[in-house]
UniProtKB/TrEMBL annotation, chain A:
GO terms for biological process: fatty acid beta-oxidation. GO terms for molecular function: catalytic activity. This is Enoyl-CoA hydratase. InterPro entries: ClpP/crotonase-like_dom_sf, Enoyl-CoA_hydra/iso. It comes from Lacrimispora algidixylanolytica. It holds the Pfam family ECH_1.
TrEMBL record, chain B:
Residues 10-91 form the Carrier domain. It comes from the Bacteria. This is Acyl carrier protein. It comes from Lacrimispora algidixylanolytica. SUPFAM superfamilies: ACP-like. InterPro entries: ACP-like_sf (IPR036736), PP-bd_ACP (IPR009081).
Amino acid sequence: MIINTESAPMVQYDTVGENIGVLRLHNGRDNLVDHAIFLDLFQLKQWLNNYKFKGLILTGEGRNFSKGANVNRIREYKGCPEILEKELNEGKKILSYIEALPLITVAAIEGACFGAGLEIALSCNYRLAAENALFSFPEVTLGLLPGFGGTIRLPALIGQRAAKRLISSGNMITSEDAMRIGLTDEITGKKEAFQKAVELIEGMVNHCSGKQMEYLSGMLDQPWTDCLPMYEKESKNFTELIKTMDMG
Amino acid sequence: MRQLNEETKKEIKEMVYSFLADECEVPVTELKGDLSVIDDLDGDSLMFVEMIEQLKKKYSLNIQMQNIGKYLLKNPANTIKEVVETAYLVYEKENDIVEVL
């Protein structure tokens, strides 16, 4: 089943059996994130209410998870950064919602997983990466910093030192490097990340009832990173930086 | 600098063709040296990085992506033939490829 609406142009909703929902990023070959509000949160909530999933997979259509934000779109906000700041804060509510879902959430990553795409993947419990996957926060090369939760979720996941290095270098790393620094949980064969994500969820939910999952998630998925002032501060920093992007 | 013999050249060329055929979902028999990876095969620049990663593993090469990136900025590999030649150069020079700039 696929729903595609005007309000959620880059996300397709799908299912695998009865227990697993799939959010598939879908925007051309690169799955660029054109808009911080990359899906309709109300619609997502309704969809999840209609199905009693135990797991949710985020993945990308085609050969890439996502090459990140559409930089040309960001440039359009140079004259009105306050609008972008608001949109970023709204977009982060989507990620915080996904992060706190009482489900097992897995990002199945093939190809490029850059910038905002990586920040979306960071909202999941697990990241399974195909052997050909590549990761990067390229914002620094544009005079920016990650602005979609990356400066908060990345250090929470891999530690402050490794996060600072990845963000400030703008370097691209392989799935092996990502695994080494704790950014990903498993390396899969090429084109196998999605199937492995299904297997991971199925293996984990076999022994848990819906109620058990809900209680467990209630204890574990209250993200200590879900700190609104920090996210708002990140949005403010990002929108300050877009005023001077491309200048150095 | 590594010596590139005819047998290894053949292996690398076959590896490049096989990789591109698989990634671009085109029969390997339809690939010709003068085809553009991006314009004719609908590929993208990251495919080259992935391919070099394969090459790196296969031959235990000491090459960093940043150095390939620097080289490609000055010497873009657009056609299949150029991709193969760059792969030869990566094999021979490894990280010293930046000195070829």
